[in-house]
Amino acid sequence: MAILQKQLSRKVGNKEYIKYVVVIPSEIVKEAKMKEGDTIKFSVKKGEISLINFGK
What we know:
mainly beta, two-stranded antiparallel ribbon, two-stranded antiparallel sheet, 4 strands
């Protein structure tokens, strides 16, 4: 299980830019054969987010 975190990315004038971060447990990353620097595609369907690993 993971927790969605909201972070301030930057502030330009009065405009704030927000990003969201999900920390994926290392055992899940290993099972998915993902590595740091991999390109990840997102897919959203019926309220679910899927991650697709495209490698480097």
